[in-house]
Specification:
With about 200 residues, the protein is mainly α. Helix content is about 75%, strand content about 0%. The chain contains eight helices and no strands. The longest helix has about 35 residues.
Length: about 200
């Protein structure tokens, strides 16, 4: 899962940022999903959130007394980003396995889920790449700009996830597939809201 070169990782990062790429991300993975890129993307996001969150707090503080670093931001960023990237894809993969096999047993026309848990991790890991530039520019003291930057980050990453997950999710029943997409977008919105209010309030 770490057998990937820098060129491939950069290509996958760029593909995650493009709103309308020429082919799906699972095709770009080409049966070789990696965890190297997702791990370092998540780690970079954690440290940049801590850095820019600290800058944001410093700018909002009173400068007549010494500024105290809030290292809870670092542990909060790690818990949020690593937790979301590790556990949400596993939950999605398990739900896809359950509902697609149930549809097949029930004769509902569904088939087995065509995505592995590692591909889910890779998909969610590379979806996080947009949070690197967003975090770098969201420390502005102008609140409305921070809302706009985080909203753009959410829109780009949510579009990336839904566009690439829909062909996989659609193997389940129509009602289930819609619910799964809503849950995916809802959880991702929760991540964006947490980033905004924990680090750039």
């Amino acid at each position: 899962f770490f057998d990937v070169d820098t060129t491939a990782v950069l290509h996958r990062c760029l593909s995650a940022l493009l709103p309308f790429p020429h082919k799906s991300f699972l095709d770009i993975l080409d049966g070789n999903p990696d965890l190297y890129g997702p791990f370092w993307i998540a780690t970079t996001v954690v440290f940049i959130l801590f850095l820019t969150g600290t800058i944001s707090q410093y700018l909002a503080s009173h400068h007549d007394k010494a500024f105290i670093y809030n290292f809870r931001l670092l542990s909060g960023a790690a818990g949020l980003v690593y937790g979301y990237t590790a556990f949400v894809p596993v939950g999605l993969w398990a739900a896809l396995k359950w509902f697609s096999s149930s549809a097949a047993r029930g004769g509902g026309g569904g088939g087995d889920s065509s995505i592995s848990v590692v591909e889910c991790w890779a998909l969610y890991g590379y979806a996080n790449v947009i949070w690197i530039p967003v975090a770098l520019i969201s420390w502005s003291p102008v609140a409305i700009l921070n809302y706009i930057f985080v909203a753009v980050g959410f829109a780009v990453s949510a579009l990336f996830l839904t566009r690439n997950l829909w062909p996989v999710v659609s193997v389940t029943e129509a009602k289930v597939s819609r619910v799964l997409v809503i849950v995916v977008v809802g959880l991702h919105a929760g991540l964006a809201i947490a980033i905004k209010f924990l680090f750039f309030a």
